[in-house]
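Problem statement: downstream parser choked on a complex file, so we are re-checking the raw output for the adenosine-5'-diphosphate run. The parser issue turned out to be on our end (a line-ending mismatch), but while we're here, posting the original submission so the record is complete.
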Amino acid sequence: MTKIAVYPGTFDPITNGHFDLMKRGLKIFDQIIVAVAENSQKQTLLSLQQRIDLVNEVTKDIKAINVMTLNKLVVDFAKDHSATIILRGLRAISDFEYEVQLASINRSIEPSIESVFMSPAEEYSFLSSSIVKDIARHNGDTSDYVHPSVSEVLREKYLK
Ligand code: ADP
């Protein structure tokens, strides 16, 4: 049976940490659907289309990764796409409380879907989309943290 995991998030923008997690996920799952949240509670810098385009660009060589819009509850999205797992990243203790809360809520809504947490390589354990945006906003070099096409979009965004 094909094991499909949903990796939901805002991806504003996708970082090397997100990508690292996806590749680790593929050691366990056959397919990962990256579900890019449309109506995140967060105010996003990039539009939904830009965020999706960048995830597509970064993951284009990996057939087992698909990118879609998330515009409903993650558990409902997962069921729609025959996914049985929700994949999330845990960077530090600070992620833990929120992630466990989310996993508990998701399980109470849909007990058949499991949340799985993975941690990225050490070098990405401090990395977040917010930090990358801060660096770009101050004209810093983001090339160690994101794909070149992401750096380019951020540069253009902050030039205006
Ligand atoms: P959200 O708004 O849902 O937190 P994000 O795009 O910020 O969306 O993150 C999506 C998922 O990726 C979350 O589980 C988050 O913990 C994880 N994540 C974010 N940055 C990293 C990173 N550097 N390494 C591993 N996982 C990460």
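For whoever reads this later: The chain has six helices and five strands.
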